[in-house]
């Protein structure tokens, strides 16, 4: 709900189900931020006085705004937007260079509009409502001939408020935008903690928490994409906030390019939180009559800790970001050819791999890199999007038909944004790349970036991808982007416009993605950028899922997927089971662990299933069948982190709270530790549930020479006899089965079977070594209705028949 409060000066109240956001116009014309937090009762501008900071005199060594407003000190006020000049020396919201070279700005309140409708942005994706009627407030500020629109939207059921800005140049000449952010929140306190997510290739989304009592903490990307270095999602929270308690603000940005966020504590103990497009290297020339749109920023607040914040963000992403055919549709289990074949693909090998996958219950086969041009390594052919006739003699259509004949869907890998210099496309259009003519260009993965700031390049790629996607029955597309920007220079733009290159690239990318998604609404698109190098809400506006990381190691993936879970629902995260030893870490983990972790995402497989023995095939077949049985809960249930660290515990709960799936994962075993508890969360406290685990067999080779404590004769470790015994004899794993109320499962948890600690072993002991995991299933148990009456009626009817 959005309200203009009664009073002499406009004051605005934005309400969600559990939060309130309040700001007001001061007599000076500035917008003063008053409150964002738990829901409060307020009905008029006079009520806002309880929030407004009082001042009678100016502060020493400070700047007063004007003689008419001597107590307006912008440096010591909570504002909705800030700019250079007039005394505010903190992080600015907007920076412009005027025709006369001046940078001092003075945007003051002009008017406002309230409506029910979507943002009318033309260059950037925004959140949406199914009915197209999101509550919308537009506040217009003026400075000379320039208009700054501040857009606020309320998504009440998610406890989310979004903000964005649009600058319209009505001044006589052009202006240069050096910064236009998307949101600014000033709060009248400090001592907060900032949690952000950082990393690199193969180790994305590492959680980092810093305390901030003074100075500035910055989260940013200069990589040309949202990047694996620093995800645009972050949280600001009470220092003692936990998973389920404490006040937590969550912030994200609907943008896929260079981003910037800062949390700054000023000299007077106030904290400013800003986010938007990275200003470093950004300079946009805005001509008279033109408008510039800043990305939409997402904000939420919860008093229920990190999980409360995550619930809000998950619901918002699922309902107001992801859209189209695949929004709520179960995602298929796929098999990707990459780690099985790498570049060495052929029609014969692809069909054989797909057949092996079909026998396991896999629904979608994906041919990854290596199918086009003269592609046999990463040094050539990007840009030449036609099938290699030697590898695929019947083309994409012939291969797709063979895969479809197996009753499987068919998908392909593409990397449209890139080009190798050893390609026909580059030889024909060297001016289509982002590079400085005549200067050294530093490459990544032997490729260059096509200049999506150039409309000709956009049109070419839209047409070329349309040709590829319509050439066969393609059900899935993995859209990759395998390098960051270097020497970012558009050969299309004029020298004076080069500061627009990175942003125009992103708007060009969005234009391409929208055109192709609109043309092929039934295709399941998965975003990828060397894994999670572009995992953001901008991509999710077009592609419903993103490949979380090129690292498929289950232990690494547990931390990576946990990191994503703070801001993104599990239906958005592609997660694959791969070979052991793992191709990125050489770590050996059990098949059960690899499956258990990948199951808490969109499940896929990424290794050569042709090489499996009968036992492995049966194991994977059973796991896929189990995943399909619980797929609705795992993909679309509410995800909770119970605890993290050496022990990870997760749970997904169905929307009706009648079913749940949980996982317990141990990284390294602590000796002589037998007791573990499994805690539930999100259940109905009054409902009775049954909790149980899936039965599994224990490979006796896990015990090494300890087998001789049980064997009737001596068995040499790793000998022929040892392998034979292990092949035909498996120990039964522990069986867990409990019935309890939701309240009991959530408050006291379930004490699991005793874990192996080196002092004894039987079928009741939980074998839980390094890298072990367990999945637990929870189902509602309804009280049985008495059967006495029905039995009595049956007896009466029988008696009546006898008398007749």
Average residue-wise pLDDT: 95
Low-confidence stretches: 789-804
Number of strand elements: 40
Helix segment tally: 14
Strand residue percentage: 25-35%
Shape: globular
Distance between the termini: 71 Å
Biggest pleated-sheet summary: 10 strands, antiparallel
Approximate helicity band: 10-25%
Classification by helices and strands: alpha+beta
Determine Rg (CA atoms, Å): 30 Å
Keywords:
8-stranded parallel barrel, single chain, 804 residues, alpha+beta, 40 strands, 10-stranded antiparallel sheet
Topology (SSEs and partners):
Layout: E1 2-5, E2 11-15, E3 19-25, E4 31-38, E5 94-97, E6 108-116, E7 135-143, E8 146-155, E9 160-169, E10 175-187, E11 192-200, E12 203-212, E13 215-220, E14 230-237, E15 248-253, E16 259-265, E17 271-277, E18 284-286, E19 291-293, E20 297-302, H1 305-320, E21 334-336, H2 338-341, H3 347-360, E22 364-367, H4 395-405, E23 409-414, E24 418-419, H5 424-428, E25 448-449, H6 455-469, E26 476-479, H7 501-519, E27 524-527, H8 537-540, E28 545-547, H9 554-565, E29 573-577, H10 591-598, E30 602-605, H11 614-636, E31 638-643, E32 647-653, E33 659-666, E34 677-678, E35 688-693, E36 697-699, H12 720-728, E37 730-732, E38 737-741, H13 742-747, E39 750-751, E40 772-780, H14 788-803
Parallel strand pairs: 21-22, 21-30, 22-23, 23-26, 26-27, 27-28, 28-29, 29-30
Antiparallel strand pairs: 1-2, 2-3, 3-4, 5-10, 6-7, 7-8, 8-9, 9-19, 9-20, 10-17, 10-18, 11-12, 11-14, 13-16, 14-15, 15-20, 16-17, 24-25, 31-32, 32-33, 33-40, 34-39, 35-38, 35-40, 36-37
Helix pairs in contact: 6-7, 9-10
């Amino acid at each position: 709900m959005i309200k203009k409060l009664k009073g002499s000066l406009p004051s605005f109240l934005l309400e969600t189900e559990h939060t309130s956001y309040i700001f007001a116009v001061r007599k000076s014309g500035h917008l003063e931020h008053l409150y964002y937090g738990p829901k409060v009762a307020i009905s008029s501008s006079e009520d806002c006085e309880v929030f407004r900071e009082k001042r009678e005199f100016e502060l020493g060594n400070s700047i007063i705004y004007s003689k008419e407003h001597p107590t307006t000190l912008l440096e010591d006020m909570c504002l909705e937007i800030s700019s250079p000049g007039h005394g505010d020396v903190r992080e600015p919201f907007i920076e412009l260079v005027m025709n006369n070279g001046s940078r001092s700005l003075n945007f003051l309140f002009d008017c406002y509009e309230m409506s029910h409708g979507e943002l009318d942005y033309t260059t950037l994706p925004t959140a949406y409502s199914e009915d197209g009627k999101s509550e919308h407030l537009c506040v217009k500020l003026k400075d000379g001939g320039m208009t700054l629109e501040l857009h606020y939207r309320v998504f009440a059921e998610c406890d989310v408020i979004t903000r964005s800005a649009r600058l319209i140049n009505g001044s006589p000449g052009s202006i240069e935008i050096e910064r236009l952010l998307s949101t600014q929140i000033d709060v009248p306190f400090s001592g907060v903690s900032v949690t952000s997510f950082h990393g690199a290739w193969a180790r994305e989304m590492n959680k980092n928490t810093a305390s901030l009592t003074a100075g500035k903490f910055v989260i940013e990307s200069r990589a040309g994409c949202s990047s694996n270095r620093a995800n645009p999602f972050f949280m600001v929270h009470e220092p003692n906030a936990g998973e389920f308690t404490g006040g937590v603000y969550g912030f994200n940005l609907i943008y896929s390019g260079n981003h910037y966020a800062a949390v700054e504590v000023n000299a007077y103990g106030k904290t400013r939180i800003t986010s938007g497009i990275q200003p470093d290297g950004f300079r946009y020339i805005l001509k008279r009559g033109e408008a510039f749109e800043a990305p939409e920023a997402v904000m939420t607040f919860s008093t229920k800790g990190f999980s409360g914040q995550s619930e809000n963000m998950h619901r918002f992403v699922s309902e107001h970001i992801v859209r189209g055919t695949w929004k709520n549709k179960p995602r298929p289990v796929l098999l990707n050819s990459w780690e099985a074949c790498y570049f060495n693909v052929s029609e014969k090998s692809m069909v054989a791999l797909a057949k092996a996958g079909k026998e396991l219950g896999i629904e979608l086969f994906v041919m990854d890199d290596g199918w086009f041009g003269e592609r046999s390594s990463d040094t050539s052919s990007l840009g030449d999007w036609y099938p290699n006739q030697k590898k695929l003699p019947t083309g994409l259509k012939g291969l797709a038909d063979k895969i479809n004949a197996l009753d499987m869907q068919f998908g392909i890998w593409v990397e449209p944004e890139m080009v190798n210099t050893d390609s026909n496309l580059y030889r024909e259009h060297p001016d289509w790349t982002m590079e400085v003519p005549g200067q050294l260009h530093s490459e990544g993965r032997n490729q260059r970036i096509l200049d999506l700031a150039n409309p000709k390049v956009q049109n070419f790629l839209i047409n070329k991808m349309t040709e590829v996607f319509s050439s066969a029955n393609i059900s899935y597309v993995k859209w990759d982007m395998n390098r960051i920007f270097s020497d970012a220079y558009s050969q299309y733009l004029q020298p004076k416009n080069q500061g627009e290159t990175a942003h125009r690239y992103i708007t060009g990318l969005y234009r391409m993605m929208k055109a192709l998604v609109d043309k092929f609404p039934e295709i399941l698109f998965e975003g990828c950028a060397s894994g999670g190098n572009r995992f953001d809400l901008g991509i999710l506006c077009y592609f419903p899922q993103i490949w979380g990381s090129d690292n498929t190691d289950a232990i690494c993936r547990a931390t990576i997927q946990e990191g994503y879970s703070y801001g993104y629902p599990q239906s958005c995260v592609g997660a694959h089971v791969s070979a052991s030893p793992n191709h990125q870490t050489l770590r050996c983990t059990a098949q059960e662990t690899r499956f258990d972790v990948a199951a808490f995402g969109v499940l896929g497989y990424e290794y050569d299933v042709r090489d499996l023995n009968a036992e492995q095939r049966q194991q994977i077949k059973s796991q896929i069948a189990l995943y399909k049985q619980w797929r609705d809960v795992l993909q679309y249930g509410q995800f909770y982190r119970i605890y993290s660290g050496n022990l990870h515990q997760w749970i997904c709960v169905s929307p009706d709270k009648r079913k749940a799936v949980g996982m317990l994962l141990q990284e390294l075993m602590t000796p002589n530790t037998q007791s573990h508890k499994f805690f539930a969360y999100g259940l109905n406290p009054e409902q009775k549930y049954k909790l149980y685990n899936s039965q599994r067999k224990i490979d006796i080779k896990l015990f090494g020479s300890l087998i001789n404590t049980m064997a009737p004769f001596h068995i040499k470790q790793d000998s022929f006899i040892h392998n034979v015994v292990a092949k035909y004899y498996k120990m039964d794993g522990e069986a867990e089965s409990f019935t309890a109320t939701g309240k009991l499962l959530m408050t006291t948890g379930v004490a699991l079977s005793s874990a192996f600690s080196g002092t004894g072993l039987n079928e009741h002991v939980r074998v839980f070594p390094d890298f072990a995991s367990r999945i637990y299933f929870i189902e509602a148990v309804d009280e049985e209705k008495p059967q006495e009456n029905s039995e009595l009626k049956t007896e009466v009817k029988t008696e009546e028949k006898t008398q007749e």
